[in-house]
């Protein structure tokens, strides 16, 4: 292992200390011999029946035995390794359908005592892995004797249909000479691997499984390390173990399925000994089958718990399981695949915290990139998080007026007093936040920053679009974009307070996008304490713009009064306009479309063009 334990699954099995019987074979010398390090490349390239004698491998060199398919290699002598701080491996054996075996006289001596310092990975002294095995196709490694591994003894990776039998790994000298992190076998990216009839004496995991399937460990004798922990656990399965110890926040993102324990026996001792300790994250453990567990001498009762204070999402594939099982969720850094929606369908009452950077792969589609739903939920961001839409990958300066599809960034559908706060969004490809089918919802302290679109072709990057919602508040929020800061399509009892809008089209109510009367109504919408900076449109070249002839293709100059604008109140609107087309107020109403407006405190300066009004609000002279 690279440290105390990087295992997602940490299993400790107590067993008796009786030594296994090791078979030995010694064939006649009918093949090719390796008696010097310099012989290795030639012999492995030309021979399929190889005998390895005694020699020393130079410091910093790997004894790489890249064997041809069907090769049989026999260790006959003592191989040792020169000292230098490095990562190794000291040996590396690869091949398909190979047999690697040891005679009764051989020894693979890692000379770990030259590296050990009592600190393992927690020192500046590099220590090499002893052996890396990458073997397939029914390969067999048998009757192998290893002594004093500097670090991890045997790493098995990218292997399948592999059997290791009758090994003796003896690093017991490390008990008194400072051995640490001397795992017996570390297994990753492998399947159908069997290790059996083997003994390990070391100072860390006897066996550590990082990743794999269809793995069998039979008749293992583990002494002195974490595999036979006489003073603590008989059997330990936990999903909260890190390099720095237990977090007490187990994760279920790496599943432990079909874990079989059979014929586990032994005696525990010490004031903290415990027969069984199981700590699984939500949904992390299922379909286990244990029998013949005979462990005695424990001083503490068993512990089996699925309680956890939070679940982490660190990969896109974690999402469904974590959201289904957890109500206190932490989201780390990862990339969402192109064309996929990060859908966070949260249980009622969930708190979700963004801690890292989430980015999204590029493909042309309509999105949304994110979709968050729930009742009475809290969604928040830590100081280090960022939701990065990578809009620059989609922007082309034309927005909706091009053949290139661009996705909405986020859709929110939340109810029941839900709160979304302290969220940072960067570079939305299209509309940033869509709020629909929501009520009793508050968004506070957001920062939407698509200012790169000013120079890289951003368009139609609305900050917030609100539809089919009521009792929604957005406050204390900044938006830098290239379209509406806020656009209300439909809703009632909507409050927008202390909005800081830069670079876009300002604050807008755009009603009429739906085909039914009920969905084309807006009631009781309030914008207050807000500022619009460097925007093409202020409130909706205009300070205030109200028109009933606006379409996606521009102004028709034929206003319709079919959607009524009633009781429109404007108070204390002030600012400075600029540009040759700037205009303080523009009002264009259809017949009977506007009535009972009340405006006061309108103080807009710097307009180049005179006001235009075909309807006059109370309290304002156009």
From TrEMBL:
EC number(s) on file: 3.2.1.15
Intracellular or extracellular location(s): Secreted
Keyword Secreted found: yes
UniProt similarity note: Belongs to the glycosyl hydrolase 28 family.
A single BP term in Gene Ontology: pectin catabolic process
Species, as recorded: Psylliodes chrysocephalus
A single Gene Ontology CC term: extracellular region
Extent of the signal sequence: 1-18
Name assigned to this protein: endo-polygalacturonase
One Pfam assignment: Glyco_hydro_28
UniProt KW keywords: Cell wall biogenesis/degradation, Disulfide bond, Glycoprotein, Glycosidase, Hydrolase, Repeat, Secreted, Signal
Catalytic activity annotation: (1,4-alpha-D-galacturonosyl)n+m + H2O = (1,4-alpha-D-galacturonosyl)n + (1,4-alpha-D-galacturonosyl)m
GO MF terms held by the record: polygalacturonase activity
